Amino acid sequence: MPRIALATxxxxxxxxxxxxxxxxxxxxxxAGAEAVARPxxxxxxxxxxxxxxxxxxxxxxxxxxDEFVSWVEKAGxxxxxxxxxxxxxxxxxxxxxGDLAAxxxxxxxxxxxxxxxxxGPALPADRDFVVKPVFGAGARFAARYTPAEHGTALxxxxxxxxxxxxxxVQPYVSGIDVSGERALQFVGGRLLHAxxxxxxxxxxxxxxxxxxxxxxxxxxxxxxxxxxxxxxALAAVPEAPELLYARVDLVDxxxxxxxxxxxxxxxxxxxxxxxxxxxxxxxxxxxxxxxx
Length: 292
Hints:
Strand 3 (about 50-55), helix 2 (about 65-80) and strand 4 form a beta-alpha-beta unit. Helix 2 runs antiparallel to helix 3. The chain is of the alpha+beta class and about 290 residues long. About 25% of the residues lie in helices and about 25% in strands. It starts with a strand and ends with a helix. The protein is built from eight helices and 13 strands. The radius of gyration is 19 Å and the shape is globular. The model has no long low-confidence stretch (mean pLDDT about 95).
């Protein structure tokens, strides 16, 4: 009986936000595994006692990215962990978008501003734009601005730089207001299912305000062009590692063609509550990885 740990976050006294976790645990047990959920930062957990550790919903890691990556690497030395530590290290820092662009993958144009670098010249004067940190999830510390809001955006950047965060500046992709953002989910290298959500960043919402991460989420059937871009992005991951799971988030660029908004290889929401027919396939892929 394979022993599998699903790494999550500690919700404290609040209910867990991971709606898929109990569903996966039940499916793995029914498939013949001994599966448990454990907070990634639980000092009492012996990760080496499991045949496989699957990073599932470690959704608080962006506040402690260095600590999290160190834990992944330590756990990866004690047992098998998915996705692999080198993938996690690369994917936790959104400067990976530059690597994808260099590999010819269409991505949302992005500029990076490290602490100490002048911010003013990076802010577009002719279009709405987005400012967010390279370490982030759920639109944390992200906001949308108009050219008339440079002053507010500069204060946002100053706040991030004070905390030692490198910032990203991207043009606001207006196509998201028309066709939304599409999330293509892969398991074991194959398309599992896809979903679409509407724009997360609304005008006037402060960067430090709570945001709805997946507004108006619905099932989606990806077009051939979307699938092609997603597969190109996955093929461009350095060293072509074997990925147990992946999510590619796409939006339409100015030319109407899909481009990568984010490549989620660490702890993407699987949206199994929206795609219950995918539960068995995910459980089977995890079980197969644990038995290797």
